[in-house]
């Protein structure tokens, strides 16, 4: 069931009330909103800007700058594939193509069944075990086509 805009505003108001007294409150507010809804709804973005007396462009700029914030609902599973140099040098480009083909989506998209969101990231800190990916917060290294396809099958 989709939330109504008044429900989103009510929840966002409670979140802003908890943080607005803090210096630099925008990031903690956005983190809590994302935790609450799974993404930053446009209604919440507008409400946050109004409550903090900043422009919607400032809030949107922050949301779009940090890759962990989403402006659309994500899938039940989030697969982040490293795109940094160490992973690229160890076959990361081919691995990325294999993942996109297997899921039938591109970067920053969610499968039509809502199961998986695919995100590019630029270093997971697992350079010695490249290429690497993160599935639902769990790191996986030394990936190849067979074991990335096995991870994808586990999500289904």
TrEMBL record:
By its UniProt entry, which Gene3D superfamilies does this protein fall under?
A: Glutaredoxin (3.40.30.10), NADH-quinone oxidoreductase subunit E (1.10.10.1590)
Q: How is the cofactor bound?
A: Binds 1 [2Fe-2S] cluster.
The record's annotation in CDD domains points to: TRX_Fd_NuoE_FDH_gamma (cd03081)
Keyword presence, Flavoprotein:
no
Q: What is its EC number?
A: 1.6.5.11
Q: Which UniProt keywords apply?
A: 2Fe-2S, Iron, Iron-sulfur, Metal-binding, Oxidoreductase
What cofactor does this protein call for?
[2Fe-2S] cluster
Similarity field: Belongs to the complex I 24 kDa subunit family.
- Name the NCBIfam families on file: PRK05988.1 (NF004638)
Protein name, please?
A: NADH-quinone oxidoreductase subunit E
Quick one: which gene encodes this?
nuoE
